[in-house]
TrEMBL record:
InterPro entries: JetB. The lineage of its organism: Bacteria, Pseudomonadati, Pseudomonadota, Gammaproteobacteria, Lysobacterales. It comes from Stenotrophomonas mori. It comes from the Bacteria. This is DUF4194 domain-containing protein. It holds the Pfam family DUF4194.
C-alpha cells in the first residue's frame, strides 16, 4: 500500500477519517462500481478519485484492479485474473444482450446523461431472441435480473408512468463496458457446453 489510511486521514486535516477510507475500499470490493452521479456513492467516489493511486495499491494485493472513467465519472473494481462471482445463464445472457444494446446506442449516438442508455422492453425482447436464440424471461424474472444488474453497477430498472403500456424500462450504465468483456463470452460458451452435455446425458439415459 502506498500510504496508510491513517496517514491520508491526517493529511486531509480532519476532512476524512480512517473509517471513510476503509468504507470506500470495502464498497469498491463489494459493490464493484462507484458513480459520482449517484447520491449514495458520490462521497466515496470523490474520495477514491482524489486518492486513486492509494486505492489501487490497497486493492492490488486482493487481486482487484481499478479502472476509472473521467468522462462519465465512475470507478470500477475488477478481478485481476478475470474470475468473478458465479452467475446463472439468465444473468449471463442479460449482461451480453444489454452490452450489445449499449454498443449499438454508442454507434448511433443515443447515449444519455451520465453515459446511460435506455432499453425499452420490446427492443430488449427482440434483441434477446436475435442474440441468444432464446425467449426473453417474463416480467417477474426480468425484475429479479434487474436487481442483480443494479448490484453489479451495470443497469437499473425504472418503472413506467401509469399511461405507459410497458411496466418498466431498463437503463444500462456505462461501467458495463469494463465489466462485460471476453470472460463473459467464455462463461456463455461454458454454459452452452454444459447444456449440450446435459442433453447428451439425457439422450443416453433414454436410450438405456
Amino acid at each position: 500500500m502506498k500510504r496508510s489510511w491513517n496517514t491520508l486521514s491526517q493529511m486531509s486535516n480532519g476532512t476524512y477519517a480512517v473509517q471513510d477510507f476503509e468504507r470506500a475500499a470495502y464498497r469498491l470490493a463489494t459493490e464493484q462500481v462507484l458513480y459520482a452521479a449517484d447520491a449514495r456513492s458520490r462521497v466515496a467516489y470523490h474520495l477514491v478519485e482524489d486518492h486513486y493511486a492509494d486505492f489501487v495499491a490497497a486493492l492490488e494485493p486482493l487481486g482487484i484492479r481499478l479502472e476509472r472513467n473521467a468522462h462519465y465519472r465512475y470507478v470500477v473494481a475488477l478481478p485481476a485474473h478475470g474470475e468473478g462471482t458465479a452467475v446463472t445463464l439468465h444473468e449471463t445472457l442479460a449482461l451480453l444482450v444489454l452490452r450489445q444494446r449499449y454498443d449499438e446506442a454508442m454507434r448511433q449516438g443515443l447515449i444519455e446523461d451520465h453515459g446511460e442508455v435506455v432499453v425499452e422492453l420490446p427492443e430488449l425482447q427482440e434483441s434477446w431472441q436475435a442474440l441468444t436464440g432464446r425467449a426473453m424471461p417474463d416480467v417477474g424474472a426480468l425484475r429479479e435480473l434487474a436487481r442483480t444488474l443494479k448490484r453489479w453497477g451495470v443497469g437499473r430498472l425504472v418503472d413506467s408512468e401509469s399511461d405507459d403500456p410497458q411496466p418498466f424500462h431498463l437503463r444500462v450504465r456505462p461501467a458495463i463496458v469494463e465489466i462485460v468483456g471476453e470472460q463473459w463470452l467464455q462463461r456463455l460458451d461454458q454454459h452452452n457446453r454444459d447444456e449440450a452435455g446435459d442433453a447428451d446425458t439425457e439422450d443416453d439415459d433414454a436410450a438405456a
